[in-house]
Write the structure tokens for this entry.
Amino acid sequence: MSLRIKNMDKQFTNTNTGTLLNVAVVGHTNTGKTSLIRTMLRSSEFGEVEDSAGTTRHVELATISAGDVPILNLHDTPGLEDTHALHSYLKYAGTHSRSDSPVKILEDFVANIAIHDPLEQEAKVIRQVLRSDVLLYIIDVREPLLEKYRVELEILTRSAKPIIPVFNFVAGHEQELSRWRDRLAAYNIHATLEFDTVAFTFEAEKRLYQKIQTLVEQHYVNLQKLIDYRAKVWKQLCLSGAKRIAELIVNVACYRESKDLNSNQITESLNEDRIREFVRKAEQRCLNDLLTIFKFTEKDVEIQKIPVSNGHWELDIFAPGILKAYGLDVGSAAAKGAAAGAGIDLMVGGLSLGAASALGALAGAGWSTFRRYGDEIKAKLQGAKWLCVDENTLQILYLRQKQLLEKIMHRGHAANVALQIDDTTKTDFPADWSAIISTLRQNPAWQNASSSRNNTKLYQEIEAKLITFLLGEEMIAAL
């Protein structure tokens, strides 16, 4: 997919515009036209998005490609601001025109409009409408059903171009959406589409392309290539996000600090501080990577119910009360917060390394076994334990990333509006969660990525289980 922006007010300067499908994004001022294009491009760099009216003042072009093959041009148009005046002008022009063709009257209007004319803004829109193959008419369903929208649609139909009304900002506004559908049905307009530029779903984007397919048969094959390509890219994005979270869980679960049973309180405190700092930094890196994977910047993360501000988690993972905040109410520990670390006895092939069994394992083990577990055996014989990240911290870590991934996957690139989605985080984990964590703790060498680790069957199984639970079996099956 490529992003090319050009001012298209006077004439086409892109040689591809004659052969590619040209889609004009039109509608009243401030309905989310630029936001729609940003979401389709997966980029917050296109155009300007503000709450003030008339932000887009010129026609801008962006090209969407399937890999290296350009498929369609999206044209972002200024908002229609004075449709009543335009309607009156066209009605008057129609009574004095030599032609009764609505299209010819529109062509005469854009050809004869003077610079600085009060309708110059509308002329920019109509000029692009006449050059395009399909019109996406964007409707903010939160707006009242005013007469101006009917007038706009009446003007646009004069172009004889296929029109797809697109309902924007539909999340949480079901009643308003229903009223809009009823109103458009009264005008005999039924082929509408929901595409929320803030609460994004890939299925809505897919349906948009499919809807266009039905209107422009000559572009059907190329649009199908685009649909297939975008579906593949989207699945890979989601898979990359889930793999990054799995990597975080592995990285943190494998981390350990040696704990001498004779150590004093200061030493133990320093060990716990190192663990806390390690976990915080690991989670922060994961957050940054997830944003990068889905092409978001720190400024884009204004996500309601997600405690992220300026690219950082607002609630520290070791803060008091965080267990209860994530549904992990485990008695007195819930008020205190997760512990920094937990002392554990390692397992060798299912055999607990107690003092006696450690001696037996040392005596009977072959060289390969001793090489693998030598440090653990020696530490145990010397009266030491390993201090690892505790279970509650790992659970919170997992839940926070799972919630973040779900929100980002449904986040459009209309960056200045916060998501209005209820928190649906569940405190469920993979069925063999404890076994997974236990295995990771026993394999500290897995902490960092390596070909040896990645080619180990047991590691591959653990990674696959985590990814499947993060994304769901249905999406995994489609990959």
